[in-house]
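Pilot study result, target chain (704 residues):
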Amino acid sequence: MPDPPPSAAQSEAFGPWLRRQLLRADMSQADLAVRLGKTRAAVSAWITGRAEPRDEAKARIAEILGTDLASLVTRTVDVPIDRPIRWHHRPAHADGGREYGNAAAFAFDADLSVLAREATQNSLDERCDTRTPVRVHYTLQELDGAHLDAFLDALRWDELLPHYEEASRGSQKVSRSLRAALSDLSRERRLRLLRVDDYNAAGLTGPEYSDGRFAAVVRRQLDSHKVTAGRAGGSYGLGKATLWATSRFGLVLINSTLSEPHEGRTTGRVVGRLDLPWHEMDGQAFAGPAWLGEPDTEIDHQGVSRSWWADDETLGRLHLRRAGDEPGTSFLVVGAYDASGATETLQEMHDKLVRSLADDFWAAMIGGRSAGPLLEARVTTLRNGEVYLPERRVDPHAHHPALSRALQAYLDGDTVEELTAADQVVRADVPLIVTPLKDQGRPRDKGREHPAVLLLTPADDHDTRINQVICMRGNRMTITEQRPRDLPLGTPPFQAVLLAGYATGRGGEDVALAEAFLRASEPPEHDRWDRTEELTTTYQRGALTRIKEFRSAIDQTVRSLMGKREITRVGGPEALRELLKLDTGAGLGGRRTQSFPTVRNVEARIDDRGAWHVTVHLKLPDADDPWILAPVAKFDVRSGGRPTVEWELLVGSDTCRAEEGAIIVEPGVRTAVFSGVTDPASHPVRGGYARLLVDVPKARGGVA
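Predicted structure:
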């Protein structure tokens, strides 16, 4: 299927176009001058743009190059010269240096949720038309039989296999992983692909090797080339490595539709990149990286494989065909897998992608009365080109109803000053003091205050994680989840959202300063606000203290909002929180000076069997010896005493351990979390008919 006629604005300048065609045809400027009966100086003037040939000369040039005059006039396609698509493997370093894998790929876990987070954030950062959302589509596909053979043939697998076999012989981690991947492919004859398409994004624009989006993704590491750097979620240039890390073969194919022309074209810019460890083959050593493309004809890059403009048939064979000509990029992860081991089947991978997109980008998918959402996301799963699991559009209100309600109210201007009903959202400002940069401001300058926005609403009855503040900036991707400390006992379950920087939807100098400040405090994972090298080297002394004060201010604001409440719940079943309370014991709740462990928060639900599932958050004082605690669960029935019910299961965490019905917390640990499940067989009544009391006294003998 031929490309549609391009507009004049897409035409490439005559000189660069002619120079590239001569290189592709292995023809020198002197050769062309002789065949035209012109001087070499005349041809040189055309190449450098100082002059342009007359129409009769153009007609003769077209004849010599084997094309038509229209191609010289539009200059939007290259002359059809057969230059075979092939893999180019980078030769080993002359100084003997070796890399046994791409270090950037180890900055993140090869987890589908991490891939979804990083790839989608990159798409958001490259949004073109700010009036419409970026649309991302994740497509899982499993190939076997003839479909697998056809894809491997299009991939030129026979060229790659000897390199894979040699690279897999080593004892390093990457080599061992490659051996397992090759063995599984040979035995099962099955391959999984994951394609990530984005639309209304910039695409991989720019030259092949110089600065630009294309080179930043395909040729370089640690290059974060963002179209909107101030609002960007990423800043380290590491996120793209998750694509290769999620491939068992370290192999990703790319097809990009460009928002601005390159070489006079915008559609079908294709390249493949492979990351292998150092290896030798047939007496030659290779550094590891390889690229699938057309042999470059530039003198400085002769023989290197560069991107090419693929036709529709080639795109189909490589599973890279895009829907329409809207700008954006398609990444095809070859041999996609979830290294966490938590997902194995297509259904599990499909569900994890949906859940991950909802958890990290629910806020970006919500729009208000005056502006639409920033993002739309969907997931589809295929087998051999046929739909296996139907397309599922990610709905933030279905996955996070209370949080979505909170942000929706803010965007629509429907927040209140005090909660009086379960469907309301209260708003408060939280001050963030932005420390001056080291080369700006006076010493001891306090800095600039930025009012971040805190939104709080009662939790939904189906929320499994409650009493947390979801913090975000920029394009409203979740950065960190903060559980407020020292909430008063009896605090009704809630959900809260903290908007800082550009996430507030405001403009102004304080917004830009806060955005840059918080961005500098994030590690490569962009999952917390804390000490980083960029924060301490860029900002004046006290920057980390301002971050800690900000986190404390968030907690204080939540406590203030929950301290003035009178919430009336309407409709729906009686909430589990009405059945749950804390029995802190005589000695645990009545002292100002904490000398015993205290319960900070309890999360609970009842399963289909009637068993209570509780997660208990403890605050502990300093102690020289371990704390040995004996959690007790009781039913507060309507008559008689409070019968104790048995624990079916007690489970510790990374802050404590469970042994023989006791929870043991090591000295120096100030907060701990454990979980328990009650035994329905020991319940005197059904779990939903009585309130559950949780008591966490010391075990007999006190402190160990």
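One observation from the pilot: Residues 652 and 658 are 5 Å apart (CA to CA). A full batch analysis is planned for the follow-on phase.
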